Automatic annotation (TrEMBL):
Superkingdom of origin organism: Bacteria
Organism field: bacterium 19CA01SA08
Name this protein carries in UniProt: DUF1186 domain-containing protein
Amino acid sequence: MLIQQAHEVEEAINNGDIESIRNDLDFRVLTSIIESNRFDLVEIIYNHFKDTEPMEQLIFNAVVESAGVDITPTAIQCLNFLKSLDKEISYEFDDEDALYHMCQIPGRVELFKLMLDMKADIPWGYVLQVSCNFICRDTIEFLIANIQVSNEELNLAFGYLVNASVTSCYHENSDQTEIISWFINKLNVDVNLTTDSDYGWVYLDCFINAPNAAKHFYVERFNSGIINSEDFWAKFIEAYLEDQKFKQAFAQAFEDLRNSSIDLTELATLFDRLGHDALAKELLN
């Protein structure tokens, strides 16, 4: 009989047939047990198979898989249990899909702390990128404070932060705005970063996606020439003139641009070339 669910495991144990689990003993069975919040079953299985199966890594894998659905007390118990073992085990996990889901679940930071304590080999740069995409502030702050992040990983994460899938230009996300400022002013991220987006620059992505945060780019190291993208403004102006709600969303961004020390002469000329000299006077003067 194929054993996959926690109740089937419990039935086999109660029938004195725990060995029947061996052929089906993978992290999926353990994941079901953890999701069912049955640490007692985890202990029984571990003690029976620990000398013949890689139980520690299987339990670790199951914790991460289950955390993509819910972070149960058993998930925390399992990692604390693994930590308590007097074994030098190098835990590793590289299933990005499972980590992607885990990053969105409340309580994730407690698990990440335990994994870091265990010196688990996790693609932390990827976890940071996903956390930025979903504006998971607690996770972002924890990772920046506790892991070594390369400049490349930081720049990638910044791109995900600016283009976060959970925000829009119509409703400012204060966490997103503050973290963008933090990345620029405290972490010295590259404000002239190119991206694979439609507009090619992280600044332009920020202006269109998080307009009230664009002001944080206006630092000394910013290449103001990035602003003068004809393709960007041609598309922007079309939307701006056609949608009153869109227009209102960018009022503060243009005020911030006017109040910056950037010379907007070339941008005004670009507006004029596109046939919108009156709009240039309205927005840029």
